[in-house]
Each structure stands twice: as C-alpha cells, then as structure tokens.
Specification:
alpha/beta; eight-stranded mixed sheet
C-alpha cells in the first residue's frame, strides 16, 4: 500500500533502501568505485524524521557530511563544501545527495506524516508548510532575512520569488517542493563549480526525499544522477543505468 500512495505523486520513487542499493551498484558498475572510496555529503532537511529514516547502507560510504539546513537547502555554503571536498580519498569520488523532503501518508495525503508516538499527523516539511502559509497570507516581505531566523527567511524568499507559480498550482505543497528542489539544485551546482576536489569524480544525486508514516519508511525519486570526470571535465548522466531494471 505504501509505495502505491507515494507513486500517485512520484511515479518513479523507490524505497530509500532500494535507492541506495541501486546507486552504489550503478557507481560500482560504471565507475569501478566501492563504497569506501566515496566521500558522501548530503543536503537534506535537519528534521529528525530524516535521521530516523536514513537508509542504513548509506553508511558504507564515508560520511555523511551534512550540508543542509531547513528543507535541504545547502546552508553550509562554500566553507562546508570546501571542508567536505578535502576529506575524499584521492582515488575515489565525492557524492552529493541533495533533496527537499515531503511527507506522504499511507492514504496518499501529501505534506504530512504520522510520527512516532503522536496520535495526529504533523506537517512535513514543516518549514515548507510554514513558509507556504505565510506566502498565502501575504506575510512575506521582500528581502526580509534576519539573523534570528535566517534559514526560514531564506525559504520564504525563495517561495516569494515564485509566488504565482505556487499559489496557482493544483497542489501548493507539491509545487513548493519542486521549487525548493530547483533552488537547491542551482545552489549545489554553483558550489561545485566554485570548489576544488582532489579526486577522480564528482557525483551529483538530486531528487525528492519522501517521508512516510512511522510504519512506511522513506522513499526517494531522483531528478538527477550525473558524474563529472574532474580530469576531462566530461559530464554524463547515470539515470538510464540506475533505472535499467524495471520498477
């Protein structure tokens, strides 16, 4: 039941366990790299549910180095990316997984989940839903970013710059999550461009991380899986290889 409710919204989603298994198998097959040669960073929301539902096999890689803050935006910036880059095995690769997250219940309700020990559903991603509520109420002020709530204010500004697209969408939290992915992807690409890596490859894995109810686990739908050969500057997608087995 759980995968069907997720695939109403994300038709190529896999469980996070299957996602990591396919990812590591694809990297080993195409780039001849084992998990211990991969320095892993993630840019995911700091929500505790993401730690609870983090796929165990991801820990076969080195790391993770956490780049993300609220809703997965890479708030660690150039300093975080630079620090992480210098931890990588020279004969290996860095792999950066980045994703906003969103909840989907067993009944297919999007934007919320049932959490451990709670009787009622709660928002997921709470920051995205909070920013969406302020956007709909006209409460976001252009350029208002404070030190007291810097990360939330940044998300609010991202949403404000796409106000019409979000508020006119058939499902606003789904659309807001798509916009967060685009903002995260753009920032990750910029950080990668501005960072030097002492290894063979940079692997970029971008998508949507989907939290389920307590007994569902988590899921992921990739939007990008690419590697950059740092010597030749060649860039190739691994999506076809990743999806070579039927869903």
């Amino acid at each position: 039941m759980s995968i069907e409710s997720v695939r109403k919204w994300y038709p190529t989603a896999l469980t996070s366990i299957d996602t990591v298994n396919r990812l590591l198998d694809t990297i080993e097959e195409k780039l001849r790299l084992k998990p211990h040669q991969l320095m892993h960073a993630d840019s995911m929301c700091c929500d505790d549910v993401n730690a609870i539902q983090y796929p165990p096999r991801a820990y076969e890689m080195l790391g993770p180095f956490h780049l993300g803050g609220l809703d997965g935006f890479p708030f660690a910036g150039l300093t975080g990316m630079g620090a992480f880059a210098h931890h990588v095995p020279e004969d290996g690769a860095v792999i950066i997984f980045y994703a906003p997250h969103i909840g989907i219940t067993k009944n297919g309700e999007i934007g919320e989940i049932s959490r451990i020990g709670q009787n009622n559903n709660s928002a997921c991603c709470g920051a995205a839903k909070g920013a969406l509520g302020k956007l709909a109420a006209g409460q976001i002020i252009e350029g208002n970013i404070t030190s007291l709530d810097f990360q939330m204010n940044t998300i609010e500004q991202i949403f404000l710059h796409h106000k019409n697209r979000i508020l006119s969408a058939e499902n606003q939290i789904f659309e807001a999550t798509e916009i967060m992915y685009e903002a995260i992807d753009e920032r990750i690409e910029l950080l990668v461009k501005e960072t030097s890596y002492p290894c063979k490859y940079v692997i970029l894995a971008g998508g949507i991380f989907i939290n389920g109810d307590t007994d569902m686990g988590s899921f992921c739908q990739y939007k990008k899986l690419e590697y950059i050969n740092l010597e030749t500057k060649e860039r190739k997608s691994l999506m076809e290889e990743y999806y070579k087995h039927n869903l």
